[in-house]
Design a protein that fits this description.
Chain lengths: 501, 519
């Protein structure tokens, strides 16, 4: 699938060697295992091989003091999995900061009346003070839940998102939740996502998944008439409206999306999930756990899909349709045909402006592989990619996406990423807010690939058009040609930028 | 139901989220999703509840909250420490504790300044929670020193390290003994528990930690007439510090700005990424011990630091974010008194130009009611300036305001007839402000980006003049302090008033008789 090209593996191996030489020995030894150059299938003996643990070590502790880009378990639970559930009040339980810094930052779009029946872009915190640390916060939590009930009676439920101190001071948030859930007759979900747990956001995802299993499923009778084409979309957080641009396609091919996890979701959509026929999982990293559980317990099959870029969208739609048989397959072909002219027009417009441009990615646990083909659909070239918090099974899946010679970096440090970018000088870097400004200072175009840089959606056909437009406007903006003062000697003339028609 | 088969997107005119989801295909899809799958409350119940939240009855319940905090206007201590460290020459922030916190501070600062923000973490995990984070400190300092070539590493703490009781002084000493950094390398530190105070206290702690590190054990020889200036936590440090230095240079004062992040958070784009830029020089920090006086521009950001300056024998004075006419007057006169330098005529002219502008526009400002929220010193400053323009600071709210702040505010408001009806809300949050704005409305809201939700819900026009500003660009590159800053604040307020008036009077043939060309 996709474009045929090969990257400069020798240069990349040299870059790895160079950065490792700058660490103290102990750290160099540990970092070495996370950096690699992808090798082709042929070299590996002709089998269709994913990357293995021998290639890149992952999901292990970050080294102190190196400027990891990773976050924490709280970020994985409150920030990613639970935060978007729109009709629940999510209490950041502990000191004020965690909730403050994550307040309204993930762009999980939703429709609702904020503060009345919807609460995503609000910051509820127990604002721990010293006395709460000393005497424990359980009593305070009880009172907080009562106050939530009093002021926000239309909330569908409450989640308690633990910050670091909770687990350290021995609070029993489970007991409080149980007691108050009974008293108020509402779902209250305690989540043990203290930031020191695990090595990244990833364990927070897992803990959040387990909380759904333990505190939501099978708690209430779900009154719902299920149908033959019912699916849950799992692991789409509706960033900039991604889930909506996906839903419109799934509905068009004849499926009924009975729940979307967790962007724009209500608690009802989560409670009802076990009644669906199939789980469609987009962000495998953050939600595979609950899919596996639903498979085991309720016998619901699950299927990974990829809605970035037309090649993957088409393949995914066909794959999904196959699960449901000829009627859906037929509709699917019609939908693919319907959007073909849009895809062709977008590619015709942007490919000439982007062809051959090189891209380096560094994102979370899914996009470092999932968006690769979308770039390749525009004839762009991925020279390097890496994950903040992938596991071994993610790297296995990555092998199928990357080309020979691609530079791979796991839990990259600020130092490494800067040196890699400096050494490769790609035409575009896709990463996060912390990486954006250093990269732009170097004169290299950048797009935030967590938040879509305040644009989006990027999922689905509608999203692909926006994606193409955004990559073009990032790369072909005239500002990159203004960096050098003209009275300073020019090393190489900047490319002339031309606006898209 | 048959689905709409048209397509909203086209290559010619690409619609992103803002217009895309207003297209009929998506509106229909979302309406059906809500109806069929969300189990929503009936519209009437939602409307009733929304109306209820606008009432005095709801306000009373809302303000009576004892435990739950909703939309607070404050952050935690280590953010202040990380910001503080950014104001010293080639200094890397090292935050001891969980690593996710550091990702948050960096993101938060980058989103406001639109600039890089560097800091490292000691990446403590569960085992460190049990055994303590000494090993993380030892390894971490070694790695930071080697990789990022700092001149100084400023250590602060997350709440995790504070709860388990890690002791920075001994940890750093241990790390030095183990060779992580040379023994004479500068590693100042501050314990910054997130469950005490707010970011302004973290700022205070870190600055004090730095001064203590360089001053302890040194002999002070007073250099008469020289001044140290500490700006405090300030999202407008880029514009403000430069304006301040311009004024002091005009006066010919000998001064050192202690903690100056104006260059660090405003590096040029010329192809080179500068991880470090500007900041108070280490040599200057050492010499600053000899200054006759240390002045703080934000009292509530420097309470402990000034106490320490006092202890070493310096005269001290503090201000509340000198902004507007009288606050700037007082600051300059104090500087003049200590330094013995006259305030030059050029500055008097600047003052006159600000007063001139205020006189030109006074009719549009007189009697306007304001709600102001933010850090304690900023709220004080804005309330004072608003009263200088004939405005009334109806609601003055600081989530991290103390009872001492409340008392100072009372005194300020009592000093002017424009402050007679003003109310002070120490420790309250922005959900409380929502109730205040519904029940006792004002003309304008002054705060930061979080205020946009209040603007949406209550219709009160928001003026963004305080950290953090995420959704407007580059305002922080211009000063708010001094007479020049006052001019900018004045213009910003006036623009908001005129834009609103134009919007309200622009309906052709209905309201546009008032759509005046000259105002």
């Amino acid at each position: 699938m996709g474009l045929d090209y090969e990257n400069d593996g020798a240069l990349h191996a040299k870059l790895i060697e160079d950065v490792l030489s700058q660490y103290p020995d102990k750290a160099a030894k540990r970092r070495k295992k996370h950096l690699s150059v992808a090798t082709s299938k042929d070299e590996a003996g002709g089998e269709d091989k994913g990357l293995s643990e021998c290639d890149v070590k992952s999901n292990i502790k970050s080294i102190p003091g190196v400027m990891t880009i990773r976050g924490c378990a709280y970020a994985g639970s409150k920030g990613v999995v639970w935060g978007p559930v729109k009709d629940m009040v999510h209490i950041s339980h502990g000191p004020v900061g965690c909730g403050q810094y994550s307040w309204s930052q993930r762009r999980n779009y939703y429709v609702g009346t904020t503060g009345i029946d919807t609460f995503v872009t609000m910051q509820f915190t127990s604002d721990f003070q010293e006395k709460d640390i000393v005497f424990g916060g359980d009593k305070k939590l009880e009172k907080i839940i009562d106050e939530v009930e009093d002021l926000f009676p239309l909330s569908g439920g409450i989640s308690v998102q633990s910050e670091c101190p909770i687990g350290l001071i021995g609070d029993d948030i489970e007991a409080v939740s149980r007691k108050k859930a009974k008293e108020h007759e509402k779902t209250i979900v305690p989540v043990r996502c203290e930031g020191f747990r695990g090595v990244s956001q990833s364990l927070g995802h897992h803990i959040a998944n387990d909380a759904i299993r333990d505190w939501v499923f099978d708690k209430d009778d779900v009154d719902f008439e299920s149908g033959p084409y019912d699916v849950n979309v799992v692991g789409d957080y509706n960033i900039g409206g991604d889930a909506w641009a996906s839903r419109i396609l799934l509905e068009e091919i004849g499926l009924r999306v009975v729940g979307n996890w967790s962007g724009d979701a209500t608690l009802a959509e989560i409670e009802r999930a076990p009644k669906a026929k199939l789980n469609l999982i987009h962000c495998y990293r953050s939600m595979n756990y609950i899919c596996r559980h639903m498979e085991e317990k309720y016998g619901i099959a699950w299927m990974e899909y990829n809605f970035f870029g037309p090649s993957q969208i088409e393949a995914s739609l066909r794959n999904i349709a196959k699960h449901f048989g000829p009627e859906i397959e037929e509709k699917t072909e019609k939908v693919i045909a319907k959007y073909r002219p849009l895809v062709d027009a977008v590619i015709a417009k942007y490919q000439p402006r982007l062809e051959g441009r090189t891209v380096m990615l560094y994102v979370g646990g899914l996009r470092p592989r999932h968006v690769i083909t979308a770039y390749e659909d525009l004839a762009m070239v991925i020279v390097g990619t890496g994950y903040e918090f992938a596991h071994n099974d993610d790297y296995q899946r990555t092998g199928h996406y990357v080309k020979n010679g691609t530079l791979l970096y796991d839990d990259v440090t600020g130092y490494e990423l800067e040196k890699f970018i400096e050494g490769i000088r790609p035409d575009l870097v896709g990463s996060g807010i912390k990486e954006k400004y250093p990269v732009q200072k170097m004169g290299i175009p950048f797009r935030q690939m967590h938040s879509w840089d305040y644009s989006g959606p990027y999922h689905g056909y509608d999203g692909f058009a926006i994606f193409a437009r955004d990559m073009d406007l990032a790369i072909n903006n005239p500002v990159w040609g203004l960096y050098r003062a003209p009275w300073k000697k020019m090393k190489d003339a900047p490319p002339t930028a031309v606006a898209a028609e | 139901m048959e689905k709409v088969t048209t397509m909203p997107q086209s290559a010619e005119k690409i619609l992103d989220h803002a217009p895309l989801f207003r297209e009929p295909e998506y509106r229909q899809m979302l309406a059906e999703k809500k109806l069929n799958f969300e189990c929503p409350h009936p519209d009437q119940i939602v409307t009733d509840q929304r109306e209820l939240t606008k009432t005095w009855e709801y306000r009373e319940k809302n303000l009576a909250r004892e435990a739950l905090v909703i939309n607070p206007a404050k952050a935690c201590q280590p953010l202040g420490a990380v910001f503080a460290a950014a104001g010293f020459e080639r200094t890397m922030s090292f935050v001891h504790g969980s690593q996710g916190c550091v990702a948050y501070y960096r993101s938060h600062l980058s989103r406001h300044f639109k600039e890089p923000s560097s800091a490292v973490s000691s990446s403590m995990t569960e085992d460190a929670a049990v055994f303590g984070g000494l090993k993380n400190m030892v390894d971490g300092l070694a790695n930071t020193y080697k990789l990022y070539d700092p001149k100084m590493i400023a250590v602060s703490t997350t709440c995790m390290a504070e709860v388990i009781g890690d002791d920075l002084r001994s940890f750093i000493e241990n790390a030095k003994n183990e060779g992580s950094v040379p023994c004479d390398f500068d590693v100042p530190f501050a314990h910054t528990p997130a469950f005490v105070g707010s970011h302004v206290d973290g700022y205070d702690g870190m600055v004090k930690g730095v001064l203590e590190h360089f001053w302890k054990g040194s002999e002070r020889s007073k250099a008469a007439g020289t001044i140290n200036i500490i700006p405090g936590f300030d999202g407008f440090c880029v514009g403000n510090n430069r304006e301040l230095k311009r004024l002091l240079d005009l006066m010919g004062v000998t001064y050192i700005v202690i903690q100056d992040a104006s260059d660090q958070f405003d590096t040029p784009s010329d192809g080179e990424y500068r991880m470090y830029d500007g900041g108070t020089k280490i040599e200057d920090l050492k010499g600053a011990l000899n200054a006759e006086a240390t002045l703080s521009l934000q009292h509530y950001n420097t309470r402990k630091t000034l106490e320490y300056c006092n202890e070493v024998g310096q005269a001290t004075a503090s201000f509340h974010y000198p902004l507007g006419v009288q606050a700037t007057d007082e600051f300059l006169m104090k500087v003049s008194a200590i330094s013995g330098q006259e305030i030059p005529e050029a500055i008097r002219m600047e003052r006159g130009r600000l007063v001139d502008a205020m006189a030109d526009s006074q009719s549009w400002l007189h009697g306007k009611k304001y709600a102001i929220y933010g850090d304690p010193d900023f709220v004080y400053a804005m309330a004072r300036f608003v009263m200088e323009t004939g405005g009334e600071p109806t609601h003055c709210l600081a989530t991290n305001g103390t009872s001492a702040w409340e008392a100072e505010m009372k005194e300020l408001l009592a000093s002017s007839s424009f402050g007679q009806d003003a109310q002070i809300w120490a420790g309250k949050d922005l959900w409380a402000m929502r109730s205040l704005l519904f029940t006792e409305p004002v003309d304008l809201l002054i705060g930061n980006s979080y205020g946009k939700y209040l603007e949406r819900d209550t219709g009160t026009p928001l003026i963004r003049l305080m950290f953090p500003i995420f959704d407007r660009h580059h305002h922080h590159r211009f000063p708010l302090m001094g007479y020049q800053g006052g001019l900018r604040v004045l213009t910003t307020i006036l623009d908001k008033i005129f834009d609103k008036l134009d919007r309200e009077t622009s309906e052709t043939g209905v309201t546009d008789y008032s759509y005046d060309l000259t105002r």
